[in-house]
Amino acid sequence: MAEARAGQRAVYFVAASHFVLASFLGWGWCFVRLHVWAASGRQQYNVLGAWNAVTHERVTEINTTYLTATSVCALLRKIAALGGTVPVTLVLDNARYQRCALVQNVVQELGIELLFLPSHSPNLNWIERLWKFMKKEALNGRHHQDFKRFQDAIDGCLADLPTKHRQKVATLMPHNFQTWDDVPLLNA
User: Fold this and answer.
1) With 0-12 CB in 10 A as exposed, 13-18 as middle and 19+ as buried, what is 35?
2) What residues in the chain have per-residue pLDDT under 70?
3) Widest distance between CA atoms in the chain
4) pTM attached to this predicted model
């Protein structure tokens, strides 16, 4: 991160969010029973995203089927096409489709470094904070009548990140990390 802040490296946090069409109800109570219409929840909008830790630039690969190694390769090519002159490091979780041979070959071809986080640690991946924010802004407390409106709500929130939501997002991604030196492991 020090190299990224100094302009010597580009660091992107990468993860996917699988938005599923459903009613995202808030909470409440009433004296009369109220029927709430809900979607089937079978359609999903997959967003594989990369978030630049310094510039807050966002790169996405979106589909409505499945995220696979080819989706990761497409995202890698988009990041490489940005044309930076500094080395690129991607911080990723341990999804299998991100570790396969196809992705490794593209990484070598493009000269990108991959840094995998420990398993089951989404709290270490900054972009997970972004996904949580987007669900809150675009989906919570709302019922989308059809999949098109659902997609539009997510796309609208993505489009508003650098403008309308800029200040809110900046508070989610501060550069104050806690580190430890020489931590002894406890015996179990």
Assistant:
1) exposed
2) 24-29, 34-41, 177-180, 182-188
3) 63
4) 0.83
Q: Could you tell me the sign of the dihedral formed by the alpha carbons of 118, 110, 70, 58, in that order?
A: positive
47-102: per-residue pLDDT in tens?
999 999 888 899 999 999 989 999 999 999 999 999 788 999 999 988 888 889 99
Beta strands in 104-149 (DSSP E): 112-116
Share of the chain above pLDDT 70, in %: 86
Q: Which residues contact 176 (CB under 8 A, 6 or more apart)?
A: none
Collect all residues with Cβ–Cβ distance below 8 Å to 158 and sequence separation of at least 6: 47, 58, 60, 134
Cα 59 from Cα 76, distance rounded (Å): 9
Q: DSSP class of residue 137?
A: I
- The CA dihedral of 124, 98, 58, 169, to the nearest 10 degrees, is -20
**Lookup result for tokens 């015996």:** 187
Q: Which domains does the chain have, with CATH numbers?
A: 2-22+38-172 (3.30.420.10)
**Helices of type H across 33-118:** 69-81, 96-99, 101-110
